[in-house]
């Protein structure tokens, strides 16, 4: 028995050594996410968490490189141009494969793009193609069949794209999830189960998504060995866990269970001198959305003076200084600063358009009281919906205090829900006011302004303005060949959205303060666009 126990112990010790060697060999990285992934279907995705996941497991004709510039990905070469740049012929790389071993084909792009514009798909970002890809506008409006979209597989590896006009931002658009391919045979086999768990998903990007379904708070990105550029994917596995409390994140970081965490408020001051501390700015625009009504029915927030009062009653500087302290800055518009510049003068868009809705409690009170009189009320109760992270809770409490202090007769009821439920409330327009925002998909003001077109699946506010629609659609189409007129149209559109209509309560441009282990390398986070984990690695 003693000899047997010794032999067993020796065998177990060898197994432990082997496991330790394997763990050391594998390049495993641990990072955090702000909320659960609601879904990873590129057609129906409508939130930053989903698109962040989609960017790791799928890939389009182009992928942003480390510097944020579009680089060839599924496309083998730059396209052949015909018809004055309106027709583009792409060759799909021969070594492009799905994670189940089947080839990525031109038909995968054709199928996916036609799904995106099909009104039956209720795709959140079908309007990305509006006025850009030929016939997309008519299809989205139900005037044409999706088969008439300007995309066609000429053969297995040749894709033809027809545009309404040559578009300067088209290559950037092709790096976003809306334009990623999907495998029709696999999707039809999965049916309604497709992309609801890692068991019902295939990938063509750097990673496969494993150990995930829409309820889980942890999941893994595992290196996709069928990926065409797998030699440049250094991480064997990236383990992700949802962390909504900064104290919890710090505990996980200091005990070596996370390699990178986000900081805010008092934690920034506490760790600003730490060797692992970093700070940068982002292109994330944070605002309150106000539900003016839908399906022909209006709410009290349809009153312009009520909205103006709300939009001018929050001390945004105090919010970014006290609660955030992470590099965030006050934003009095929708388009953020320091990222998009006039094509002729190179002046910053935000500087050109100035402050459209600034904090002014005196004026806010005047607008508010005028609005109450117009709707025949002396007081108003409004529910403010927000996610359940510690930071969002602090923000909503701060805004509740500010709004009730500056606007007599107003009561704000805070409605705290999960991040996933907040996304659902936004998309279904099941809210009165909602704390939200947008990071943008590409470096152009259009990515922020396109959301608020009439009946856009990204609107969800009830805002509608014919002149606004004309300017934004013109920037996507008829003005695309005149950069300066196009720029002027976008400047005017933002003025209509906020200065004239107070459709949102702009709050701040997001900053990013974080702790990151020195061993974590090539965590690529762009000012605009989803993070890119392709090159991430962990030094020994």
Automatic annotation (TrEMBL):
Membrane topology value: Lipid-anchor
Domain of life, source organism: Bacteria
Subcellular location: Cell membrane
Alphabetical list of Pfam families matching this protein: SBP_bac_5
Any one biological process term the GO annotation gives: peptide transport
Chain ranges of the Solute-binding protein family domain: 74-458
Any single Gene Ontology cellular-component annotation: ATP-binding cassette (ABC) transporter complex
CDD domains: PBP2_OppA
InterPro entries hit by this protein: Peptide/Ni-bd, SBP_5, SBP_5_CS, SBP_5_dom
Alphabetized GO MF terms: peptide transmembrane transporter activity
Gene3D superfamilies: Dipeptide-binding Protein, Domain 1, Dipeptide-binding Protein, Domain 3, Periplasmic binding protein-like II
Keywords: Peptide transport, Protein transport, Signal, Transport
PANTHER family assigned to the protein according to its UniProt record, in alphabetical order: PERIPLASMIC BINDING COMPONENT OF ABC TRANSPORTER, PERIPLASMIC OLIGOPEPTIDE-BINDING PROTEIN-RELATED
Similarity field: Belongs to the bacterial solute-binding protein 5 family.
Protein name, per record: Peptide ABC transporter substrate-binding protein
